[in-house]
Design brief:
The complex is a heterodimer of chains A (319) and B (138). Chain A has 319 residues and is of the alpha/beta class. Chain A has helices at residues 13-17, 21-28, 30-40, 45-66, 88-101, 115-118, 126-137, 160-173, 186-195, 197-202, 214-227, 234-247, 255-277, 283-287, 291-295, and strands spanning 78-82, 110-113, 141-144, 179-184, 205-209, 231-232, 288-289. Mean pLDDT of chain A is 87; it is low at 1-14 and 304-319. The longest helix of chain B is centred in the middle third of the chain and has 14 residues, at 61-74. The chains are: A alpha/beta (319), B alpha+beta (138). The structure holds adenosine-5'-diphosphate (ADP) and magnesium ion.
Chain lengths: 319, 138
């Protein structure tokens, strides 16, 4: 019988001479994606740093694999915590692309699911629902929004645990097929992880998304406007900052999402203003948002009463 | 008798790796993949039973392969096929269909001759499998 030597499988020159990290980095095309992330998302410094770190880790893990250095496939499941509108879903979408480019998921799409998509109403309803969602997410990233709603200890007949069970299983057994991202408010996620240690032990990266500063929200607004071929004029810019300062103290403020909604309202008012005025409209007028388009918002009314866009009525994101 | 039909009828049975690659091809074309099974493999039997609904929105073959495995486990003695349906307007037809499982023992068909008027003979195929009632075949 031939005894196996304890040396690495020699002979291949690449194995001993090391690898060109720069080349691998360029080949993965990851730089373009990371730069895009930096450019198109305002703020989020800590998140961006973590993503760069994770990308580096994964790139090196791949290289180690090519060098025959046994590495277990790194665990990729993550948790994204932060308040609504802080960019969790948006970043998850980018993350899916990054993982795809680094060769960790085959397709790189994002499937967003909440409790309602996973948990059924009666016995035997949950398993097929969860299975269906998992099937769609294969080859990509499964993003579970407000994951803690899966776990409702106060109701012992709840079917959530059935979905949790299945998710834990795929997170363990199908690590090559999909990556799970659990998202939600930080404090509630902490409680959730505390009572579901199975999830906690399977999640490798915890990313916390901070609330945005006013300046960052202004930056986001400008970015959103530019991408839709609109712009604030000087007075509108000042008005919008004032708007933000008021809005941030009101209930249901949802960071960047509130900005998006406010901009949608402003576009509506601008269109109304132009139609009322009639006649020929200069090209510049079509893109310009003025202060009035913003100041008409009920956020500026002191009583804040009676309007479709008070934050007190309407949906969560009414502006 | 080894029954073949569908897109790859001229080839030996596909391995799971090959099945997976074909499924991925369908998904990449944006075709909806469905799984069907039957115990009546007559070529004119268009009505196979559905294993779940056609899979719209699935991007990766891993999801479909799980269903194929589940169907095999639940129906070990049935014919199982995978179809890729191209729903684009103007096509709206099955683009690819192939068998992914056969029962262990395939009795096959016999040729039946029917004497008709004026010494006319009518030929037809009779599947031995269908001699037994549904559910007791194989
Ligand atoms: N840093 C950012 N820069 C630019 N736009 C952002 C940023 N963060 C969030 N947005 C935008 O805000 C909206 C809400 O973000 P989303 O990712 O859905 O938040 P969450 O999932 O945390 O609730 C989206 O339209 C997104 O494009
Ligand atoms: Mg979200």
């Amino acid at each position: 019988m031939v005894s196996k030597a304890e040396s690495p499988p020699a002979a291949d020159p690449g194995l001993t001479s090391g690898v060109d990290l720069g080349q691998a980095y360029r080949d993965s095309n990851i730089d373009a994606l990371l730069d895009e992330l930096d450019r198109e998302l305002v703020g989020l410094k800590p998140v961006k740093t973590r993503i760069r770190e994770i990308a580096a880790l994964l790139l090196v893990a791949k290289l180690r694999e090519t060098q025959g250095l046994t590495t277990d496939r790194p665990t990729l499941h993550m948790s994204f915590t932060g308040r609504p509108g802080t960019g969790k879903t948006t970043v998850a979408m980018r993350m899916a692309k990054i993982l795809n480019h680094l060769g960790y998921v085959r397709k790189g799409h994002l499937v967003v699911a909440t409790r309602d998509d996973l948990v059924g109403q009666y016995v035997g309803h949950t398993a097929p629902k969860t299975k269906e969602v998992i099937k769609r997410a294969m080859g990509g990233v499964l993003f579970i929004d407000e994951a803690y709603y899966l776990y409702r200890p106060e109701n012992e007949r709840d079917y959530g645990p059935e979905a949790i069970e299945m998710l834990l299983q795929v997170m363990e057994n199908n690590r090559d097929d999909l990556v799970v991202v659990l998202a939600g408010y930080k404090d509630r996620m902490d409680t959730f992880f505390h009572s579901n240690p199975g999830f906690h032990s399977r999640v490798a990266h915890h990313l916390d998304f901070p609330d945005y500063e006013t300046d960052e929200l202004m930056g986001i607004a400008e970015l959103m406007l530019a991408s839709q071929h609109y712009e604030f004029d000087g007075t509108a810019r000042r008005a919008f900052r004032e708007y933000l300062e008021r809005r941030m103290t009101m209930p249901h403020f949802a960071n960047a999402r509130s900005v998006r909604n406010a901009i949608d309202r402003a576009k509506l008012r601008q269109a109304n203003r132009l139609v009322k005025k009639g006649g020929t409209v200069a090209r510049g007028e079509l893109t310009r948002i003025d202060a009035d388009d913003i100041r008409q918002s009920r956020v500026f009314a002191d009583d804040g009463e009676d309007s479709t866009d008070t934050p007190h009525r309407g949906g969560k994101d009414a502006v | 008798m080894h029954i073949t039909q569908g897109t790859f009828s001229y080839l030996p049975p596909l391995s799971d790796v090959q099945i997976r690659a074909q499924v991925q091809y369908c998904l990449d074309q944006d075709w909806a993949v469905s799984i069907e099974f039957t115990d009546d493999p007559h070529p004119r039997n268009a009505y196979w039973d559905m294993w779940g609904l056609p899979m719209f929105d699935v991007k990766d073959s891993a999801g479909v392969m799980n269903e194929v495995q589940a169907c095999r486990a639940a129906k070990p003695e049935r014919y199982i096929r995978v179809n890729g349906y191209d729903r684009r307007y103007g096509r709206q037809t099955v683009g690819l269909s192939f068998i992914v499982q056969r029962p262990k023992n395939e009795p096959g068909f016999r040729l039946e001759r029917q004497e008709s008027t004026d010494r006319v003979i009518r030929y037809t195929l009779h599947s031995y499998a269908t001699d037994k009632p549904e559910g007791e075949r194989y």
